[in-house]
Amino acid sequence: MSEMEPSTHRELFEQAVNKLENISTLLQPEVPMLGELHLTTRQEALFFINLRHEGLTLTEMAQRLRISKSAVSQAMKRLEEEDLLYRAANKENKRETQLVYGAKGRKLKEELTNFQHYIVDQYIAKIPLEELKQANQVIHRLEEEINNAYKK
Q1: pLDDT tens digits, 95-128
Q2: CB of 57 within 8 A of CB of 97?
Q3: Which residues face 46 on adjacent strands?
């Protein structure tokens, strides 16, 4: 049975979210360590943001997530217990606290980096570059719209 072509913004959005959920479900077994941790969405967000922006302070992380420093600290408790991320004094400014990897966090970082390379090699590289550029433009536009809404 083929899918019906979406006819509204809502239908297209719901279809895209459904496809992303399906992709996530299919690929999740490829990173078993992440599934075994049973992190909350916020804890995963902290870890993934740190992957892309290492060395953020607690304040910067809170700003990126649009939550309080206290909420970041609460989420960090579990990440510290799991030896994924730790709070450490910023060497350049002792009053600031940075996020640094624990041993298990470094291992997960390596696993996720390898996984990203695998995804690009096995799947992304098969999609024409122009289609990827177009999808990237749509994602950027959506981000702009959301950011503009939050600025109001």
Answers
A1: 888 899 999 999 999 999 999 999 999 999 999 9
A2: yes
A3: none
Q: What are phi and psi of 144, to 5 degrees?
A: -60, -45
C-alpha closest to that of 20 among 104, 142, 109:
142
Question: What whole-number distance in Å separates Cα of residue 141 and Cα of residue 134?
Answer: 11
Residue 7: phi and psi, rounded to 5, are -115, -5
Count of residues for the chain? Answer: 152
Within its chain, how far is the Cα of 53 from the centroid?
A: 11
Q: Cα separations (Å) of 69 from 49, 55, 74? A: 15, 16, 9
Tell me the backbone φ, ψ of residue 82, rounded to 5 degrees.
-85, 0
pTM metric for this prediction = 0.80
The CA distance from 148 to 152, in Å, is: 7
Contact between 109 and 51 (Cβ < 8 Å):
yes
The count of C-alpha atoms lying within 13 angstroms of the C-alpha of 106, restricted to the half-sphere facing its C-beta, is 4
Task: Report the interhelical angle of 58-65 vs 41-52 (nearest 10°).
Answer: 120
